[in-house]
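Lecture notes, part 5. Sequence design as translation. It can be helpful to think of inverse folding as translation between two languages: the language of shapes and the language of residues. The source text, in structure tokens, appears below.
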């Protein structure tokens, strides 16, 4: 077997799609092999040399880039002949994520004639993108690996020969990396505000996760049926009337904020999507229980709990990359995940796409403060502001206050000139554009106002209804048929693993408390200027051992990684990279103290929630008439 076939067979085990693509590529006549590597021609007929083993000709050794051990994400521009990639692999810990991006599949195919790819692929920390567009190579791969991308820094290492072959491609990769770093900043701010709230709601909604079916059973059930996403932008008021004419001939998916406007216009949504954790989102649906009893609620476990508990109609559970939900789904049936995108409308769009909806029609998706207003007139917010209006404060001022609270910028409106929007809404606009570009469904923007969404076909809603909404869909029958066939979740494994985790957390609390006591004691010694160097070093070593023991609690750290990441942002590099020489004894001690106290606090909150969750499962088992023998009795 030659080396190329060996590489193809090995690659097929890890990435069969890439393996098939490469297998079907013929060797390019523009690539010439030598004893030391290969030459490739640029578009300008310039020969570029790729060296087989050495990486010293015009290429920096990894040590020249500084220490990579504290890096979380490294993006390598260019595969070359893999020598520089092996250097990076050997210079980094197993926890690092290495994204290798090669623009030219013909170059990659030629490289497989010369080098063995196994050491690169089998290391377990490399993702290999070959010949993909910038969005797929960067944004999709990083989000697929991390779920919610929050990294502060992406280390970029450029392989000069590859850059010279295709400079414009890697310039586009630069743009996509900047884009996902902007997304990460938004994600971090969101997590800092909501991560703990989300976790609390997930535990409060645990019973619903166990007893309600997931959305995944409906994936593909509405293939090539038109779907409309109803959002709560101010433009909704001027064209929502056309939707009633299409009822029953289009899948109507409404965000919770827009439901009142739909009902006020005699239109019943097939699905209502709710995923926000705040009580205001409960108010969007409060008092509408009877009117919505024939509509299906699609709710995320982070949703404000009363929304699910009080809903009278069918409820489906959708998930996303929350680490606690992912841990639960290791022991129960998966519910079906949607891409978040930052808003309920983006999740609704991905839900429609997974249902098979085509085309997907957007209305009320202004992504701006169209007409100087923030929401549709029928929304809870607008109704509340009307009640709050007095002699000195008008409804326009209420909308204006919301607009001023956002960072404003002006962009072109497809229908009426310039409109005011915000960085947050522009990030949602970009999300839609990315999804439209990579998806196979046609997207029609029938908002008739607001920001233009690249890739979407602009069309009035009346025209879209006449063109696409012609045949009966019978969405209710499909939904009810699926829900009627779903089986109750087996809670046996989840219960016992939650009890096991509860025990581990109590051990972790003991270790973190011990570490906190040692650090507090050492601070007192240092402040008293007692020069007991041996004594201090002895206890520093003990704290290091305690921290190492704590890291063995893998499930806890995985589940709480968002909160722990925020904690580590306030911790000195000494704790993140213990192999590094500390800046000072005081810095080291402060890092340990922050770490131990922070973990102890996270443990305390999580342990309380977990124990309540265990009791919730016991109540579910009783309601399902599960015999006591079916659940092991474990003391915790």
């Amino acid at each position: 077997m030659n080396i190329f076939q060996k590489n193809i067979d090995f690659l097929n085990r890890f990435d069969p799609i890439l393996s098939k693509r490469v297998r079907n590529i013929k060797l390019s006549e523009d690539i010439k092999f030598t004893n030391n590597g290969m030459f490739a021609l640029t578009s300008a007929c310039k020969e570029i040399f790729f060296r087989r083993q050495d990486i010293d000709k015009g290429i920096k050794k990894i040590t020249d880039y500084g220490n990579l051990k504290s890096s979380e994400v490294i993006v390598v521009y260019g595969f070359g002949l893999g020598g520089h990639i092996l250097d990076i692999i050997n210079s980094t810990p197993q926890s690092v994520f290495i994204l290798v991006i090669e623009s030219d599949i013909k170059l990659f195919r030629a490289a497989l004639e010369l080098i063995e790819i196994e050491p690169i692929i089998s290391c377990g920390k490399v993702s290999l993108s070959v010949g993909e567009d910038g969005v797929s190579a960067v944004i999709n791969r990083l989000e697929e690996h991390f779920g919610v991308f929050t990294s502060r820094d992406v280390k970029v290492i450029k392989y000069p020969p590859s850059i010279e072959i295709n400079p414009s491609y890697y310039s586009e990769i630069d743009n996509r990396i900047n884009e996902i770093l902007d997304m990460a900043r938004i994600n971090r701010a969101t997590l800092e505000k909501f991560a703990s709230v989300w976790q609390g709601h997930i535990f409060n909604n645990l019973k619903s996760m166990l007893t309600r079916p997931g959305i995944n059973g409906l994936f593909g059930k509405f293939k090539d049926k038109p779907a409309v996403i109803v959002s709560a932008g101010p433009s909704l008021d001027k064209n929502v009337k056309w939707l009633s004419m299409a009822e029953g001939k289009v899948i109507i998916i409404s965000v919770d904020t827009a439901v009142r406007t739909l009902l006020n216009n005699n239109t019943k949504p097939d699905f209502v999507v709710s995923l926000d954790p705040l009580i205001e989102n409960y108010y969007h649906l409060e008092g509408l229980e009877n009117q919505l009893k024939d509509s299906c609620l699609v709710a995320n476990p982070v949703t404000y709990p009363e929304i699910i508990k009080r809903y009278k109609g069918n409820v489906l559970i959708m998930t996303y990359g929350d680490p606690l939900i992912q841990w639960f789904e290791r022991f129960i049936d998966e519910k079906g995940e949607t891409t978040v995108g930052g808003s309920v409308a983006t999740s609704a769009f991905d839900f429609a796409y997974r249902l098979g909806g085509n085309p997907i029609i957007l209305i009320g998706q202004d992504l701006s403060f169209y007409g100087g207003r923030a929401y549709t007139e029928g929304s809870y917010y607008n109704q509340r502001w009307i009640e709050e209006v007095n002699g000195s404060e008008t409804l326009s001022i209420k909308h204006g206050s919301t607009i001023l609270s956002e960072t404003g910028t002006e962009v072109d409106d497809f229908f009426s000139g310039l409109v005011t929007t915000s960085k947050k809404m522009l990030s949602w606009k970009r999300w839609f554009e990315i999804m439209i570009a990579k998806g196979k469904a046609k997207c029609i923007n029938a908002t008739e106002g607001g920001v233009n969404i690249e890739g979407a076909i602009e069309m009035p809603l009346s025209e879209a209804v006449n063109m696409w909404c012609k045949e009966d869909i019978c969405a209710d029958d499909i939904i009810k048929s699926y829900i009627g066939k779903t089986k109750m979740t087996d809670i046996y494994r989840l219960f016992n693993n939650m009890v096991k985790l509860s025990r581990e957390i109590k051990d972790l609390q003991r270790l973190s408390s011990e570490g906190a006591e040692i650090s507090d004691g050492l601070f007192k010694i240092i402040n008293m200027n007692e020069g007991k160097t041996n004594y201090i070093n002895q206890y520093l070593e003990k704290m290091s051992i305690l921290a190492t023991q704590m890291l063995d609690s893998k499930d806890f750290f995985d589940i709480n990684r968002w909160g722990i990441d925020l904690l580590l942002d306030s911790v000195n590099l000494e704790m993140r990279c213990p192999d590094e020489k500390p800046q000072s004894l005081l810095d080291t001690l402060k890092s340990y103290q922050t770490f131990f106290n922070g973990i102890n606090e996270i443990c305390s909150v999580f342990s309380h929630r977990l124990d309540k969750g265990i009791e919730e499962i016991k109540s579910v088992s009783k309601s399902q008439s599960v015999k006591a023998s079916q659940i092991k009795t474990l003391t915790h």
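The translated text above is only one of many valid answers, since several sequences can fold into similar shapes. DSSP finds 26 helices and 17 strands in the chain.
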